[in-house]
Automatic annotation (TrEMBL):
Superkingdom as given in the UniProt entry: Bacteria
Region (Disordered): 119-144
InterPro entries: Phage_term_ssu_P27 (IPR006448)
Protein name: Phage terminase small subunit P27 family
Composition-biased stretches (Basic and acidic residues): 124-144
Amino acid sequence: MNVIDGTGQIVPEPHWRMLLTDDLEIDAATEYWRAVTTELRERNLLAPANRHAIQRLVLAYVIYDRSVRDVAENGAVTKPKRGNPKAIARVSPHFTAMREAANDAATLEAELGLSPRRRGAVTKVERKARAARASDEFKGKAAG
């Protein structure tokens, strides 16, 4: 378990080797974890209860990256098998996985307050001092 300054005491990083086998993906997961937990810590939103949501977000990023590589190399549509007159071109399962991972990541980013659109919804509201008004002087007198 790796400890990121200021975050590992709050939310320990998962053992990526238990979930992933590719060294490049493990390195990417570590970097994604570091980026997400650092962002949440700096905004005072990092909590132990978010551990699994952060893990799912990081895995969605890794699956998205994996699927993008395949789609970039082979295309979004699979070619029909040769010699089979009934075979048709179909949407690549990697393209479908890529889109699903992107949707999952977007949902989790919103829940964690990482997407720019949702940042205002999860930050603490600053309470400003109420400006004194002339009528405030009379409120106390009427009650007493």
